[in-house]
Amino acid sequence: MLANKFQKKIFKAFFLILLFSITLILQASFLNKILFFGVKPDLLLICIFLITLHQGLFYGEVFGFIIGLAEDSLSGCVLGTNAFSKVLISYLINLSSKYFQIKKSIIKLLLLFLFSFINAFLIILLNLPLGRLTLNIYLIKDIFWSAIYTVFMGIFVLWGLKLLRNEK
After folding, report:
1. Distance CA 162, CA 158 (A)
2. Considering its fold, how many domains does the chain have in total?
3. In angstroms, how far apart are the furthest CA atoms of the chain?
4. pLDDT score for 88
5. What is the mean pLDDT of residues 42-56?
6. Phi/psi of residue 36, nearest 5 degrees
7. Could you give the CA distance from residue 164 to residue 168 in angstroms, rounded to a whole number?
8. CATH of the domain at 87
9. Residue 39 — φ and ψ, nearest 5°?
């Protein structure tokens, strides 16, 4: 009985690592070529959002931290900015799921927009003291369009999950 639970946890962790590896490769290579208003969606945030909702805070924060560090190392950001923002977003997702019923897709998409906006804004704020970025209206516009694009991709992810579960 105990060994069976342990095997399930190992399988779940392996599956999540595989999911994040594939998503990170897609994010770093393929999505750089498909820009919308000069921005790309954050597929990693979509994964962290769904994992935190369905698996809980522990998995969301652990994988948010790991994938954030990997994203920092690939993006050239200061090491830890994406990791910090992804862990904080995972915490906020978990907190919001305690106070709101997040069952309907429209609520998930609205929260995904909000958390995508917060995530991008946090990364900018963390880079401001280092002189890497300046906060201006064009940057806010890019954050907005990035959040919209992330929600658009989230629609397809949620739709695909419903098809996998045979839901209507």
Report:
1. 6
2. 1
3. 57
4. 95
5. 89
6. -125, 115
7. 11
8. 1.10.1760.20
9. -125, 165
